[in-house]
Amino acid sequence: MTYSSPLMSRRSAMSKIASLAALGAGLFSVPKAAKADQAARPVAPGGMDHAQRIEWLIGQMTLVEKAGQLNLLNDPFRFRPQSVNPTDGLGDPARVSRMIRAGELGALFNGVGAEAGRRIQRIAVEETRLGVPLLFAADIIHGLYTVFPVPLAEAAAFDADLARRTARAAALEGAVSGIHQNYAPMIDVARDQRWGRVVEGAGEDVLLNQILAEARVRGIQGDHGLNHPDALVATPKHFIAYSAAQGGMDYNTTDMSEATLRGTFLPPFQSAIDAGALSVMSAFNDLNGVPTSGNHRMLTEVLRDELDFAGFVVSDYTSEQELIAHGFAEDGRDAARIAMLAGVDMSMVSGLYLQHLPDLVEKGEVPMARLDEAVRRVLTVKAALGLFDDPYRGMDPVREKAVCGSREHYQLAREAGAQSIVLLKNDGDLLPLKPSGQKIALIGPFADDVDNVFGPWTIWGDEKHRISLEAGFRAAMADPQGLTIARGSGIETPLEGGIAAAVQAAERADVVVLAVGEGARMSGEAQSRTDLRLPEPQLALAQAVMATGKPVVVLLRNGRAMELSGAVRDAPAIVVSWFLGSEMGHSVADVLFGARSPSGRLPVSFPHKSGQQPFSYDHKTTGRPADPNKAVEEYTARYRETTNTALYPFGHGLTYGRIAYSTPTLSSAIMPWNEAIEVSVAVTNSGPVDVVETVQLYIRDRVASLTQPGQRLRDFRKVAIPAGETVTVSFTLKRSQLEFIGANGRMTVEPGAFDLWLAPSAQTGAPVRFTLAR
Question: Quick check: is 37 catalytic?
Answer without folding.
Answer: no
